UniProtKB/TrEMBL annotation:
GO terms for molecular function: hydrolase activity. PANTHER family: AB HYDROLASE SUPERFAMILY PROTEIN YCLE, MONOACYLGLYCEROL LIPASE. InterPro entries: AB_hydrolase_1 (IPR000073), AB_hydrolase_fold (IPR029058), AB_hydrolase_sf (IPR050266), Epox_hydrolase-like (IPR000639). SUPFAM superfamilies: alpha/beta-Hydrolases. One of its GO terms (cellular component) is membrane. Residues 29-264 form the AB hydrolase-1 domain. This is Alpha/beta hydrolase.
Amino acid sequence: MSAAIRAEDVAIGGGRHLRVNQTGTPGAPALLFLHGSGPGVTAASNWREVIEGLGDTFHCIAPDILGFGDSSYPDPQPKGFKAQAEVRIDALFQLVDALGLEKVVLVGNSMGGMYSLRMAQLRPELIEGIILMGSGGMPGLEPTPELIKLITYFDDPTVEAMADLLIQFVHDKGAFGDTVEKVAAERMPIVRRPWIEAGHRAMFGPEMLSFTPDDLAKIDFPTLVVHGRQDVIVPLECSYYLAEHLPQADLYVINECGHWTQIEQAARFQAIVRTFLGGRDE
């Protein structure tokens, strides 16, 4: 049975807040879900089905990262991916502290995977494990044409362009076309907020957040690296690289799956998360 989502604004420092979606019982093993960077993305659109499914066993926490969705946004906007990451990750740590979480498993999709790795570098005492899904972070990775389409979305910010972008996130476009159309429509009111565009344009630059082999060797936590074989947003080679250099990494490649593992292969993704974390349905 699906767990009900509780959505609330949680106050963090500086008069700001993060919109947080939660399922499950506080005190259960905590999973912190970090979404990706697409225009108009929210935690709910990225993680809804997953946190509903896992809330029977885990305390699932899925915030709109600072500057996304219904959370507060930085003013002024930091310039560049790394500068944005530092401000947003600091806000995530404030959320963890506000919720009284002593240990968390980080579950990061794409940009959220990169943030998960950085969080593990900065406050390793908080981390019980890491699940990366279609994560970036490989040095020198050239953007794919589909990722460039994401980066330049605000040059033509229409609902048609949104649907055309998001359909690239799934492999089986016939089966998931209706889902993509729904997500595209859901994102448009958020896209039209001026600070969303400002944050998006400020984020992408020549200097990305990446991790050397030596960096990864020091992130010594149980790690599950998941990637869709047909992902055209972040190449599969990135997860091969992460799995090679993270000391405790398991690699799971899902065939006939694109960048949105959690949507296109939702049941399978939840099953491998449960297996990785040692949890089973009764």
